[in-house]
Amino acid sequence: MAQLWKGRFKKELAKETNDFNASIHFDSRMYKEDITGSMAHATMLGACGIIEKSESEKIVQGLSEILADIESGKLAIDPGAEDIHTFVESELTARLGQTGKRLHTARSRNDQVALDIRMTLKKEIDAIAADIKDLLAVLCKKAEENKGVILPGYPHLQRAQPIAFGHHLMAYAAMLCRDLDRLADVKKRMNVLPLGSGALAGTTYPINRQMVAAQLGFDDVSANSLDGVSDRDFCIELAAALSLVMVHLSRFSEEIIMWCSWEFKYVDLDDAYSTGSSIMPQKKNPDVAELVRGKTGRVYGALVTLLTMMKSLPLAYNKDMQEDKEAIFDAIDTVELCLPVFAAMVDTLTVRPKNMAKAAAGGFINATDCADYLTKKGLPFREAYMIVGRLVNMCIKSGDTLDTLTLKDFRAISSLFDEDVYDALALKTCVNERKVYGGPAKESVQKQIELIRQFVGEHTK
Question: Is the distance from CB of 434 to CB of 440 less than 8 angstroms?
Answer without folding.
Answer: yes
